[in-house]
Task: structure prediction
Amino acid sequence: MSSKYERELRTILRKYGYLVIRSAGSFVIDLVAIPKLFCNIEDIKFIEEKSTHGKSLYISNTEKSKRQFDENKRIYNEYNIEIVYAVRFISAKAGKNWRIFEIDYEEDGYPIFKEDKGIKLKDWLE
Result:
């Protein structure tokens, strides 16, 4: 089901003028979004997409999610590439369904993403 939401997010990003590359079946970095006019690497968005029916998403709940997070952290530490998490809260009211979470990869442990936290996708894109 997650690929459905990756495609949904890709469509939204394209509406904001991004060239979006989707890495289907990836182990890390589901989407790379490049704005039409960019000057440096910071303008490119590296995105890990997740979805949940709950009000919270715990990365520590599955071994796959933990491995993905650990690999994203390695990429951040080795290449200084910031990978954000875009979480689709499926049961949320319209307009509150996508949240962006910028990760502090220096912290120990695995993050918990809550429906009422993070940055609204629209705000993050503008």
About this structure: The chain has one domain: 2-125. Strands lie at 18-22, 31-35, 45-52, 56-58, 83-89, 98-101, 112-114, 119-120.
